[in-house]
Amino acid sequence: xxxxxxxxxxxxxxxxxxxxxxxxxxxxxxxxxxxxxxxxxxxxxxxxxxxxxxxxxxxxxxxxxxxxxxxxxxxxxxxxxxxxxxxxxxxxxxxxxxxxxxxxxxxxxxxxxxxxxx
Length: 118
Known about the structure:
It contains 2 helices and no strands. It is mostly helical. Helix 1 packs antiparallel against helix 2.
């Protein structure tokens, strides 16, 4: 079950580069599964998990943007202070992870929607 991690969402965090232009999401409110009847608990658990995936994907995308900015800065300067964390292979693997994770989530959302239609 997903935990309420609103405190770690980065809302109001100034750690992101001002040059990064990504969508900002408001912190999610997790559904309290215990308060729901059993027929709705499965859907609530899915929504909590989906929110975790979206939040993790956004965080990873911001990290990749930050790292690419460091890579660009390192190529224009001879400074080791701005060396990127990831090499090209690692960066490509993380981009694929994002794409696959969001693709699987999309497929699961479609399945949930189809299950709700009469």
